[in-house]
């Protein structure tokens, strides 16, 4: 067969027309024109297939075909496992090969010429050895046929084999199962994407992507489910579910439109979506349906055959290499290129890599030690923004405390608006069939001596950690990840850091931490399993004198409550403090004090800032409800209890003169916030860890992580240092890691984006909200080439940038008139 011949990869022209590509390639922005070549003269090509040797190319194609057969026969594996677990398969008698000697069956090999069992069939399925479904059917029938031939008709094994045979034939008839019917159909699959073609590399037809993870930007925050209608903005940065869009459109309708009577109480409508002030902001919303996309296809100009764009390692901005062209093998490169040279090394990456390889050699994992390599991408000057409600609450309580106790030092509970830190992304790579695969990702936040938040100084926060199970050999997987973590701990303790903070929290079922769509055979660890994984890591680090010990966030920052109380007398001479809940009254100054000796550390994306924000939101909602009830009065309202604008005197509602407060206003008392936060942290006591590093206290080591950032890091795309942005890019552009084939392509695109940040692909993020902008026309600054804003931030936050912004086409670099913009087509 022509598709089976593996030859040299041949370069195909980059100016592909629509006739040679089908399906939707989500790695390019909406409005992208493949005929425009602007900027391609500066393109740095990442062509892994063109740099592979002939042997590596054959190995790669064979691996893809094996994986394709395993994927296409997944339904057969389910059927086989049902037979293996069937009650008629007593004691698994059909699951293992017959041992004539152990079972004292001297005539078995004479009667049964072709022994077969379900376990052997399962092994062949997992290895992708079956080329046709009929071969699988024949082997399963052979198992039961052998049992019926060797055993008499009245024997229970003969009876069970006959029953299981009939069950198997009934299942394979395809009645009620569309997938089985499609597998048995000689016609095959035909759709607008594949047009009936079979991929010349993996020999499969249409392959579905995972359903994209879309979350409503409205107040509900729910996930957009398959088949649901949703609305997306012109720039693709935000989506709304049907309910939130319609509700907000009604609430922002002009005065001339129809308005229903507002509801109050339990059935009241939710408040409008934050940031949306008028219906015009919804004028560019496009109605779409949440559906599963299929992999796009591309046609080779040389051999005129079709293949999946992922199989051909296709990048729409630079073209394709056809791996099945009939060129002489002697024309192929003799030595494969080292893709690990694309990302340069640094002090930290060299330290971790040397530590990893040395320790793997020590435990006998030599093959893994020789093929794994580490790269670190660092970003200095990152800023964590303290939630506005949290900052405001601490400021109000500090002001109130300073007013009631002028002699008390209140600087210890003042929060800065922003906390600077250095972010690092640590990645582990390994070559598979000559192609690089990213296996492990670790995101950390480093806070030095200059951090304005005292509790954060000389500390490291393990922000996110994730892996995909493609590391070979599998026996080296856990130890390799432990060695990377220990190497990082050892490095930071040598550079002045004293603590490492860890939140042991497994990802949700449908949401990955770093890598979008992990393999189906990789289970999500439970909280207990992940906690035990970290405990084993810390035990190993302590045995190597890297870690001195560890405790919990609760024990360190929430249990040692300060017993010293501020003297307080509830008398007329005491200074009143106005609380916004009900009325002006005298409040104990101790209620405005954070009761522990030190504030807890706050990290970007950590549990405590989010929990404080949630607590304050509930307190504000409660106080607002009380204010509304007292403002409008009620049947049981009195002058003393109302404290608002109206009261009941003599059965009549009278207006009460409201005095303007002259004392500090407090929405939420810190003591109440602490009690609620303490309860929440106690529930996660064993998951929030504080690790003390084994630091040499006799030597004063400065801690300045921003000075340990290579000069070349300034040109690295920002999303490599942010899990939030990296995950957005992968999920939006379809860079999945659920199969090794897709992991190879996704890693190639990672390296491409690293080298070609200026290429107009779906790799531009808003500088304010950090959301991905998926349209070719976006707001750019002519003086700051890396600065861009989404439509919403341009409307509301333009004043934060010192230079004027223009709506430009990132392909042509031409200014686009906002009035000429058209929303992307509905799909």
TrEMBL record:
Question: Which BP terms in the Gene Ontology apply to this protein?
Answer: positive regulation of transcription by RNA polymerase II
User: Per its UniProt record, what InterPro entries does this chain match?
Assistant: Bromodomain (IPR001487), Bromodomain-like_sf (IPR036427), CBP_P300_HAT (IPR031162), Histone_AcTrfase_Rtt109/CBP (IPR013178), Znf_RING/FYVE/PHD (IPR013083), Znf_ZZ_sf (IPR043145)
The compartments listed are: Nucleus
Which reaction is recorded as catalysed by this protein?
Answer: L-lysyl-[protein] + acetyl-CoA = N(6)-acetyl-L-lysyl-[protein] + CoA + H(+)
Write out the GO cellular component annotations. Answer: histone acetyltransferase complex; nucleus; transcription regulator complex
Task: Tell me if Transferase is a UniProt keyword of this record.
Answer: yes
Q: What is its EC number?
A: 2.3.1.48
Top-rank taxon of the source lineage equals: Eukaryota
> Taking every annotated instance into account, which residue ranges of this chain make up the domain Bromo?
86-158
Q: What is its main location?
A: nucleus
Gene3D superfamilies named among the record's database cross-references = 3.30.60.90, Bromodomain-like, Zinc/RING finger domain, C3HC4 (zinc finger)
Which GO molecular-function terms appear in the entry?
A: chromatin DNA binding; histone acetyltransferase activity; transcription coactivator activity; zinc ion binding
Q: Which UniProt keywords apply?
A: Bromodomain, Chromatin regulator, Metal-binding, Nucleus, Transcription, Transcription regulation, Transferase, Zinc, Zinc-finger
- Residues covered by region (Disordered): 250-275
Top-level EC class, please? Answer: transferase
Which segments constitute the CBP/p300-type HAT domain? 337-759
* PANTHER family in the record: CBP/P300-RELATED (PTHR13808), HISTONE ACETYLTRANSFERASE (PTHR13808:SF1)
Name it.
Answer: histone acetyltransferase
Organism, as annotated = Lagenidium giganteum
């Amino acid at each position: 067969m022509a598709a089976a011949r593996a030859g040299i990869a041949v370069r195909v022209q980059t100016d592909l027309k629509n006739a040679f590509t089908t399906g939707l390639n989500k790695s390019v922005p909406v409005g992208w024109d493949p005929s425009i070549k602007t900027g391609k003269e500066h393109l740095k090509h990442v062509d892994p297939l063109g740099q592979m040797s002939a042997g590596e190319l054959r190995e790669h194609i064979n691996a893809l075909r094996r994986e394709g057969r395993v994927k296409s026969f997944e339904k057969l594996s389910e059927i086989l496992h049902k037979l293996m677990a069937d009650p008629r398969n007593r004691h698994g008698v059909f699951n293992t090969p017959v041992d004539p000697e152990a079972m004292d069956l001297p005539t078995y090999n004479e009667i049964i010429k072709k022994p077969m069992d379900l376990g052997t069939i399962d092994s062949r399925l997992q290895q992708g050895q079956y080329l046709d479904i009929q071969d699988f059917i024949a082997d399963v029938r052979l198992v039961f046929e052998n049992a019926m031939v060797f055993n008499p008709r009245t024997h229970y094994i003969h009876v069970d084999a006959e029953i299981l045979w009939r069950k198997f034939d009934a299942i394979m008839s395809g009645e009620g199962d569309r997938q089985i019917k499609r597998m048995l159909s000689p016609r095959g699959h035909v759709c607008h994407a594949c047009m009936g073609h079979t991929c010349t590399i993996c020999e499969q037809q249409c392959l579905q992507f995972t359903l994209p993870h879309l979350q409503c930007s409205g107040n509900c925050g729910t996930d957009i489910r398959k088949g649901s209608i949703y609305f997306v903005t012109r720039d693709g940065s935000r989506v709304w579910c049907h309910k939130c869009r319609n509700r907000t459109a009604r609430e922002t309708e002009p005065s001339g439109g129809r308005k229903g009577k507002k509801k109050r109480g339990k059935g009241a409508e939710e408040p409008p979506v934050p940031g949306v002030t008028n219906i015009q902001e919804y004028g560019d919303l496009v109605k779409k349906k949440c559906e599963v996309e299929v992999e796009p296809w591309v046609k080779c100009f040389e051999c005129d055959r079709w293949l999946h764009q992922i199989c051909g390692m296709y990048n729409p901005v630079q073209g394709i290499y056809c791996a099945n062209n009939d060129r002489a093998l002697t024309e192929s490169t003799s030595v494969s290129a080292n893709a690990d040279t694309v990302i340069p090394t640094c002090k930290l990456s060299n330290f971790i890599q040397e530590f990893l390889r040395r320790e793997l050699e020590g435990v006998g994992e030599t093959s893994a030690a020789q093929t794994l390599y580490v790269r670190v991408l660092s970003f200095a000057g990152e800023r964590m923004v303290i939630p506005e409600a949290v900052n405001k609450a601490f400021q109000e309580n500090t002001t109130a405390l300073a007013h009631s106790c002028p002699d008390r030092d209140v600087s210890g509970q003042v929060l800065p608006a922003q906390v600077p830190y250095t972010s690092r992304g640590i990645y582990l790579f390994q070559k598979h069939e000559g192609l690089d695969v990213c296996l492990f990702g670790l995101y950390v936040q480093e806070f030095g001596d200059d951090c304005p938040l005292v509790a954060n100084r000389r500390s490291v926060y393990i922000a996110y950690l994730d892996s995909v199970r493609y590391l070979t050999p599998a026996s080296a997987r856990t130890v390799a990840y432990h060695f990377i973590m220990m190497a990082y701990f050892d490095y930071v303790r040598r550079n002045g850091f004293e603590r490492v903070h860890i939140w042991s929290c497994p990802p949700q079922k449908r949401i990955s931490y770093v890598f979008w769509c992990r393999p189906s055979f990789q289970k999500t660890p439970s909280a207990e399993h992940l906690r035990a994984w970290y405990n084993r890591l810390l035990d190993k680090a302590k045995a190597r004198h890297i870690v001195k010990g560890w405790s919990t966030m609760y024990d360190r920052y929430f249990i040692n409550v300060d017993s010293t109380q501020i003297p307080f007398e509830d008398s007329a001479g005491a200074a009143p403090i106005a609380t916004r809940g009900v009325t002006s009254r005298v409040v104990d100054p101790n209620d405005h004090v954070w009761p522990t000796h030190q504030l807890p550390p706050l990290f970007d994306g950590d549990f405590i800032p989010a929990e404080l924000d949630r607590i304050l939101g509930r307190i504000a909602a409660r106080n607002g409800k009380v204010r509304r009830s007292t403002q409008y009065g009620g049947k049981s309202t009195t002058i003393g209890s109302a404290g608002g604008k109206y009261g009941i005197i003599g059965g009549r509602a009278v207006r009460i003169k409201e005095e303007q407060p002259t004392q500090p206003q407090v929405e939420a008392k810190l003591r109440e916030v602490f009690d609620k936060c303490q309860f929440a942290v106690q529930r996660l006591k064993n998951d929030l860890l504080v690790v003390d590093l084994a630091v040499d206290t006799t030597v004063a080591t400065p801690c300045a992580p921003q000075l340990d950032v290579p000069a070349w890091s300034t040109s690295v795309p920002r999303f490599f240092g942010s899990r939030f942005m990296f995950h957005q890019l992968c999920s939006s552009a379809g860079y999945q890691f659920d199969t090794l084939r897709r992991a190879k392509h996704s890693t190639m695109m990672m390296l491409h984006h690293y080298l070609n940040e200026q290429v107009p692909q779906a790799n531009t993020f808003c500088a304010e909200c950090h959301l991905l902008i998926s349209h070719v026309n976006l707001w750019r600054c002519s003086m700051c080439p890396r600065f861009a804003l989404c439509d919403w931030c341009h409307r509301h936050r333009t004043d934060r940038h010192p230079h004027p912004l223009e709506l430009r086409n990132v392909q042509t670099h031409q200014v686009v008139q906002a009035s000429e913009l058209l929303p992307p087509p509905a799909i």
